What we know:
Blueprint: H1 13-33, E1 40-41, E2 48-52, E3 58-65, E4 71-73, E5 79-80, E6 85-86, H2 90-96, H3 98-101, H4 105-129, H5 134-139, H6 142-146, H7 166-172, E7 180-188, E8 193-196, H8 202-207, H9 212-224, E9 232-237, H10 239-249, H11 251-255, E10 259-271, E11 277-280, E12 288-290, E13 293-297, E14 300-302, H12 312-325, E15 332-334, E16 337-342, E17 363-367, E18 378-382, H13 396-404, H14 408-418, H15 420-430, E19 432-434, E20 441-446, E21 449-455, E22 462-465, H16 477-482, E23 485-486, H17 488-515, H18 519-536, H19 541-546, E24 553-554, E25 557-558, H20 560-566, E26 578-579, E27 583-584, H21 586-596
Parallel strand pairs: 15-21, 22-23
Antiparallel strand pairs: 1-2, 2-3, 3-4, 3-5, 5-6, 7-9, 7-10, 8-16, 10-11, 11-12, 12-17, 13-14, 16-17, 18-20, 19-22, 20-21, 24-27, 25-26
Helix pairs in contact: 1-4, 2-4, 14-18, 18-21
Amino acid sequence: MLGPMPEEQRIDAATWALVNRAAVAKAISELTYEEALSPVALDAAQTRWELRLESGICYRFEAVRRIWGQLAIRPESLTRGTDERRVDDAVGFFLDARQALDISPATFCTYAKELYNTLMADARITAERAGYSADELASLPDTALQRLLDGHPKAPANKGRLGWGLRDFEDHAPEFGRGIRLFWLAAARSSIALSVDPQVSEDTLLEAALDGKEQARFSKALAQAGVSSATHFALPVHPWQWQAQIAAQYAGEVAAGRLIPMGVFGDPFIPQQSLRTLANARRPEALHVKLPLSILNTSAWRGVPGKYMGIGPAFSRWLDETARQDPVLHRLRVLREVAGAFYPHPHYERVPDAPYQFCEMLGAIWRESPELGLPDGHRPMMMGALAQRDAAGRPVASALIARSGLNHAAWLERLFDAVVVPLYHFMCRYGVGFIAHGQNVTVILEGSTPTGVAIKDFQGDADLADQDFAELTSLPHAAQQVLKRRPPAHLLQHLQTGHFASVLRFLSEALADGDGLDERVFYATLAGCLRRYQADHPDLAQRFALFDLFKPKIPRIAINRVRLAIGYGDANERPAPALGNALDNPLHLAETVLASHGAEPRPAMSGAPTR
């Protein structure tokens, strides 16, 4: 018989209400941004708002409309109904809004499961983070900080993790901070697709997870199983994936001896925000390992697709060599994917248009750690962490700015020069567009000041221009054949939506709320960095016209509306976002405002406040 829930697993009423209010505030803000909801202002200053739903229920709150058009809502101001009860039920909000959002009963119930899982995780994170100030959060190592982050800022149900129960959360979710030891298979080389950088040995892949003692134990186990490294490859598997998926669904391969279970070996690994990427807990500079997890999280099944596996090492090496040879990219570091292995399922792979989650179950990617080779005094920080706020509402970025001794505009100028300019240059010079969201971009800090950037995740998060750029001819032919070719507007959207609207939008809001920084200063600083870069490279004028970041209007991308519309049926591809009405471009707005006052868009002259 099970005993009572341990004290550390219990969720108190105050924390539960807090995370529910935050989720409702995020839901109203993002669904308003996506044009699915239409709150109206109750006062001329547009600080009091009302959302009246088709169900007849009314929500009221205090909010400020930000430069991107979203509402920055004070969660504690949220009330529901004519008696204006304080809001404390996020799933109840979606029930109230089900008609307005046109959510089917089946979709509502499954989305509610995602939301309940998210709230459970958020309660844990909120309780853990309560003891940290923004200064203390800003001082944490990257891996330790990641376990205290709120997650994807655009998705209310951003920790859905369908397929996991409480024990799985405790054992494998980043917020619990527990080390995960990998399960290993000996996989027949005749059945596995393997790609390894020619300058990396397979021994290096093992060494990233197994110290000398564990390697000896592993070698002994191979010998006892009668397995030779000449015929079988050592393939790591996430322990949850092994017991929940692989043991049964690959049982025929095990019976045939093409997969031989070896057991648990090696160092403990810490899950990163993306869940699938694991960092060595004892040796931070060791290779990271990215492993499939057949769970649904933030609208997609978190497997590893085999179609990119063969090109990962060659493509990331080309990106790395390109960056090293280009002076504009001297502060950009490519976290190379040095190896990839994929074991296709013997039956699912043969079904045309099979749901993708059945075709991405078993494989591994080895990637360089952002800790590797950093000079003294330098450290990595996942870019999504900059907008994270402490319990008092102060963002991590505010703490870094204050400690740097710079004013806001000067610090932001260094951030944009280190991150945005290289991403834009890669697009304009080489025709490579990265979906640079908050998890796959890592800021390199020198002390508390941005000095560089590391980028990762090139399997599906990078595309090529569909035009003949001479600079792309040196890209290996296999990579050119596999990577998607996109029109310039699509690549531009990767930067505008993947980075500006999905990362910078929340950073500028956090600094506006926490420090009173005028968002026009924020985007004028960004505009100034980009304009100076353009002025320094007149030879790329035609490319700048092709990839124009300063148009008055830019696309509005909706992800939550899509999740609520399509439901949870199986599909052969990940869901594509929807388009709404065009957005006013903050870069254009900032430049226009400055021009109307006769000012140059030079951020150092903006007079940003300093804390």
